[in-house]
């Protein structure tokens, strides 16, 4: 009678010779094939696999506008922003001449946050039996979806039931600087656009990583890279002496595209939050199917409030 150890050795030998029952020689009798199939079934039953305790996730690139702009939290439906639309003018007067009256003028701009939502259905079986904390995963993934959605809106939002994007603002587009050649980003334009913003604003660039990579390839007439600090040591976090931020939603270099912005985003763009993220756990809507719905919701928006503080660069069409 064979020992269990010798039987296991034979199983290992058979598995090495034939990776699967289907690869066994056709000359084997039916009984032999049945025996081999049973042996492979035993191998699958007796061996186990270990589940990784970490879910591997791809990186979601989130636009950093919330970290650049001014953020205001309100408790009502909307907020009225007071803007100075005109400044008083001081004039020189001669002796005994009457001074000219002049005063500042003001206006109101109303900003209303919009609802951003995300709903995930999941079965109660999966909630109870999964090897991971699925409720925590749903909330984490939903938070990431919110960050991506609002960031994209702050860059490219139309302003209709969503934020007004910096790169689609009509006033900023009309005042944008064009590059010298069609479809090409040039170093001169990157520098000259900073001169279009008034002195006193704390400037920084906003572009995507692909445009930044293009800028790093700029060379002089002698073939030397213009951005030397990034090649001789740690990559500098400045461009043309100014800090920069990378936004994945910023358009790529293409004919007629607004591919870069420079400005004081804290003074030029306002993000308004009405509430923090709310989580609604609904186990009743689909109770007959034993499905639980997690709805994540928040109210937020963004808008350009000082257009002179931001300048766009358009790739010439």
Describe this structure in words.
The chain is α+β, with helices and mostly antiparallel strands and 317 residues long. It contains 10 helices and 13 strands. Strand 7 (238-239) and strand 8 form a beta hairpin. Helix 1 packs across helix 2 (30-46).
Any chance you could write out the topology, listing elements then pairs?
Elements: H1 4-17, H2 30-46, H3 65-68, E1 70-73, E2 79-86, E3 105-111, E4 114-123, H4 124-129, H5 134-156, H6 170-174, E5 177-178, H7 187-192, E6 204-207, H8 209-216, H9 229-232, E7 238-239, E8 242-246, E9 258-263, H10 265-268, E10 269-273, E11 278-286, E12 291-304, E13 310-314
Parallel strand pairs: 1-10, 5-13, 6-8
Antiparallel strand pairs: 2-3, 4-12, 6-9, 7-8, 9-13, 10-12, 11-12
Structural features:
single chain, 317 residues, alpha+beta, phage-related protein like fold, 2 domains, six-stranded mixed β-sheet, five-stranded mixed β-sheet, 10 helices, 29% helix, 26% strand, disordered N terminus
- Based on secondary structure, the structural category is alpha+beta
Strand order of the largest sheet: 5-13-9-6-8-7
Label the overall shape.
flat
Specify the CATH class of the largest domain: Alpha Beta
Distance between the termini: 86 Å
The number of distinct structural domains comes to 2
| Helix-strand sequence | HHHEEEEHHHEHEHHEEEHEEEE
CATH topology of the largest domain: phage-related protein like fold
What level of helicity do the residues show?
25-40%
Largest sheet: 6 strands, mixed
The overall pLDDT average reads 86
Q: Which residues form runs of ≥5 with pLDDT under 50? A: 1-18
């Amino acid at each position: 009678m064979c020992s269990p150890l010798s039987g296991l050795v034979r199983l290992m030998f058979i598995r090495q010779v034939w990776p699967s029952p289907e690869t066994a020689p056709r000359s084997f009798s039916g009984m032999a094939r049945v025996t081999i199939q049973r042996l492979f079934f035993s191998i699958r039953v007796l061996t186990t696999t270990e589940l990784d305790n970490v879910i591997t996730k791809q990186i979601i690139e989130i636009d950093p506008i919330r970290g650049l702009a001014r953020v205001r939290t309100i408790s009502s439906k909307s907020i009225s922003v007071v803007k100075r639309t005109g400044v008083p003018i001081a004039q020189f007067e001669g002796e005994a001449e009457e001074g000219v009256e002049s005063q500042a003028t003001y206006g109101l701009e109303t900003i209303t946050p919009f609802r951003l939502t995300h709903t995930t259905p999941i079965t109660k079986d999966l909630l109870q039996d999964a090897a991971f904390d699925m409720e925590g995963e749903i909330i984490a993934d939903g938070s990431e979806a919110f960050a991506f959605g609002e960031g994209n809106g702050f860059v490219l939002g139309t302003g209709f039931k969503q934020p007004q994007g910096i790169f689609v603002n009509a006033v900023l587009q009309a005042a944008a600087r064009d590059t010298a050649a069609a479809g090409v980003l040039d170093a001169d334009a990157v520098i000259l656009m900073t001169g279009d913003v008034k002195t006193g604003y704390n400037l920084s660039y906003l572009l995507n990583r692909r445009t930044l990579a293009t800028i790093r390839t700029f060379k002089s007439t002698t073939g030397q890279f213009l951005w030397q600090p990034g090649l001789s040591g740690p990559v500098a976090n400045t461009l043309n002496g100014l800090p920069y931020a990378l936004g994945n939603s910023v358009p790529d270099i293409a004919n007629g595209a607004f591919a870069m912005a420079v400005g004081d985003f804290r003074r030029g763009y306002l993000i308004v939050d009405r509430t923090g993220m709310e989580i609604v756990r609904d186990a009743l809507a689909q109770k007959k199917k034993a499905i639980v719905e997690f709805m994540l919701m928040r109210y937020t928006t963004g808008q350009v409030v000082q257009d002179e503080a931001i300048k766009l660069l358009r790739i010439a069409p």
